[in-house]
UniProtKB/TrEMBL annotation:
Cellular component terms (Gene Ontology): membrane
Matches recorded under InterPro entries: Na/ntran_symport (IPR000175), SNS_sf (IPR037272), YocR/YhdH-like (IPR047218)
Species: Oceanobacillus zhaokaii
Similarity section: Belongs to the sodium:neurotransmitter symporter (SNF) (TC 2.A.22) family.
PANTHER family listed in its UniProt record: TRANSPORTER
GO molecular function terms listed in the Swiss-Prot or TrEMBL record: symporter activity
Protein name stated in the entry: Transporter
Keyword Signal tagged: no
Length: 447
């Protein structure tokens, strides 16, 4: 059967692939600038708290739903709750993944162009010109759309090969290499003169800088960074064998995500303050600050090129998961070619992503509720669709899914006590949904 062919070959392959789905633009690109714009250390502390108390339990829940049903996101809810309104959660996830990928791939295109320009001999030698380089890349309709197209072409090719031969093989090699290069970069960044102020900004919480909107952003980013809320992990875990512990796997993914976010902050903020840059720079922060750091290192051009290449692959492993949930939804139990479906989905994402790609140039003055198309799509996905999806998943696990199946899937492959299960289940049933509702209502001024 087709289902047997589509499985992870090993536990580590699943964990690294799931980590790859989570670790990408969320931890490396978005986290630093979100932290810079939302209070520094206080935002980081909230992000960690939300990741552990809310994000991790939901990640376990998505794993349980996927492996329990042995179906991709749309079919999983249809199998577990047939002929009920709950089946809309899977469709919500596919739409969310599509919208998320439409603007995510724009940034992926920026990274792809940067990676090409970082080849020694091509890149601008003077670090002071990197802000100008970023403005040139994002300001060109041709470059942004070309980057978007090439980025999605890579996604289509890899997802067409399937789980083991495409996604898993790339994740096993590239994720460990990314960790190594990040650690090297952090060591250099924290040794700059003036770096201590950046470390203090990042690690010392000042809660006076927080408001209800910042709290919502921290909650939304904890979901964005773990790739939960759009049932990506439901699809990934549907390819998983029963001997793998879902809570321990989810814990590994969450710890790796927090660790990479920590490394990203320690790599970025010391350089920001050492060079007198603004931590509130926004989406361009990573593309301007990292080259500044590498320019001060021996063989900096080579290190920058290698790091950007690995960063590109980390971004790709995240985007693979989004294209996979869309592709799987239209190939499960259907006589359709994976390659054809992935290609069509990629083309549709490309078309949907064009307005976001043009938001930094020809459509810069076009606003939706005061936001560019790029920022509006980001806000819709990160602050409405992801928290909303997580709320629905929590309610589904807590009140609808068969309790025996939930307990079995939680227990397979580990010796965790019944007390651990009860803590997790009560979190999902009460604490997670109530927290999401309160944070959301607070952010729109109702509370």
């Amino acid at each position: 059967m087709q289902k047997e062919k589509e499985q992870w070959s090993s536990k580590i392959g699943f964990i690294l692939s799931s980590s790859g789905a989570a670790i990408g633009l969320g931890a490396i690109w978005k986290f630093p600038y979100m932290t810079g714009m939302n209070g520094g250390g206080a935002f980081f502390l909230l992000f960690i708290a939300f990741t552990i108390i809310i994000g991790l339990p939901i990640l376990i829940a998505e794993f349980i739903i996927g492996r329990g049903a042995e179906k991709e996101a749309v079919s999983a809810y249809k199998k577990l709750a047939p002929n009920s309104l709950w089946t809309f959660i899977g469709k919500w996830g596919v739409v969310g993944a599509f919208l998320l990928m439409s603007f995510y791939s724009v940034v992926g295109g920026w990274v792809l162009v940067y990676s090409a320009l970082s080849i020694p001999g091509l890149v601008i030698k003077d670090a002071a010109n990197y802000p100008e380089l970023f403005a040139t890349i994002t300001g060109s309709p041709f470059i942004t759309i070309l980057g978007l197209a090439l980025f999605l072409l890579i996604n289509i090719i890899v997802v067409s090969f399937g789980i083991q031969d495409g996604i898993e093989k790339s994740s096993k090699i590239l994720m460990p290499l990314l960790f190594i290069f990040f650690i090297i970069l952090v060591i250099r960044s924290v040794t700059f003169e003036g770096a201590l102020e950046g470390i203090r900004f990042f690690l010392h919480p000042d809660f006076s800088k927080l408001n209800a909107e910042n709290v919502l952003y921290a909650l939304g980013h904890s979901f964005f960074a773990l790739a939960v809320g759009i049932s990506v992990m439901v699809t990934y875990s549907s390819y998983l064998k029963k001997d793998v512990s879902l809570p321990l796997s989810a814990g590994s993914v969450s710890v790796m995500n927090i660790f990479v976010s920590l490394l990203a902050g320690l790599a970025i903020f010391p350089v920001v303050f050492a060079f007198g840059l603004e931590p509130t720079e926004g989406p361009g922060l990573l593309f301007i600050v990292l080259p500044e750091a590498f320019a001060q290192m021996p063989f900096g051009e080579v290190f920058l090129s290698l790091f950007l290449l690995l960063f590109l692959f980390a971004v790709l492993t995240s985007s693979f998961s989004m294209l996979e949930i869309i592709t799987a939804a239209f190939t499960e139990n259907k006589n359709r070619s994976r390659k054809k479906v992935a290609s069509i989905a990629g083309i549709l994402v490309f078309l949907a992503g064009i307005p976001a790609a043009l938001s930094s140039n020809v459509l810069a003055d076009f606003k939706i509720f005061g936001l560019t198309v790029f920022d509006a799509t980001d806000y819709l996905v990160s602050n409405i669709m992801l928290p909303g999806g997580c709320l629905f998943i929590a309610l589904f696990i807590g009140f609808k899914m068969d309790r025996t199946l939930v307990r079995q899937e939680f227990s397979y492959g580990n010796n965790l006590s019944n007390g651990m299960y009860q803590v997790w289940f009560q979190l999902m049933r009460w604490i997670v949904p109530i927290t999401i509702i309160f944070v959301f209502l607070g952010s729109i001024g109702i509370l």
